[in-house]
């Protein structure tokens, strides 16, 4: 059996590329990439960086530094400032992690401040209750 394109038939009369047989242009190893496998995520073009950097949460870091717990707020500001620098260097995963860390430290700063406010209120209630109960008229 001759093929008009000059190709020799495979075993049992199969043409190359049929029924799992490696065809012309098949990469070494005989495997061809399946459609959809190894493609860029939705909205991203292969070989291009993601469209926008993540939110650096700098505003929350500044607010929690001024209004809440100073040390955790400062750490949040430092992490927020790293986001855009890392993004510009092409370190996208590290930029996302720095943004998440900035948000986490701002949140913990607000939580610590909330706990301190509750503790101060409880302290004053106990002090005032003790003073009222021990006073003699």
From TrEMBL:
The keyword Transmembrane appears for this protein: yes
Residue segments, region Disordered: 1-50
GO cellular component: membrane
InterPro entries per record: CD225/Dispanin, CD225/Dispanin_fam
Compartments it resides in: Membrane
Source species, domain of life: Bacteria
Low complexity composition-biased segments: 1-21, 29-46
Pfam families named among the record's database cross-references: CD225
Keywords recorded for this protein, A-Z: Membrane, Transmembrane, Transmembrane helix
TM stretches of this protein: 58-78, 105-132
Name of the protein in its database record: Interferon-induced transmembrane protein
């Amino acid at each position: 059996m001759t093929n008009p394109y000059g190709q020799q038939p495979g075993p049992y009369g199969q043409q190359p590329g049929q029924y799992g047989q490696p065809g012309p242009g098949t990469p070494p190893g005989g495997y061809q990439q399946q459609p959809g496998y190894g493609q860029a995520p939705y909205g991203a073009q292969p070989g291009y960086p993601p469209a926008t950097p993540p939110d650096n949460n700098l505003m929350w870091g500044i607010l929690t530094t001024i209004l809440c717990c100073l040390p955790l707020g400062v750490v949040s500001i430092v992490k927020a400032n790293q986001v855009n620098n890392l993004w510009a260097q092409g370190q996208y995963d590290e930029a996302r992690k720095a943004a998440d860390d900035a948000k986490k430290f701002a949140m913990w700063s607000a939580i610590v401040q909330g706990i301190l406010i509750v503790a101060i209120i409880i302290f004053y209630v106990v002090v005032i209750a003790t003073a009222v109960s021990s006073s003699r008229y």
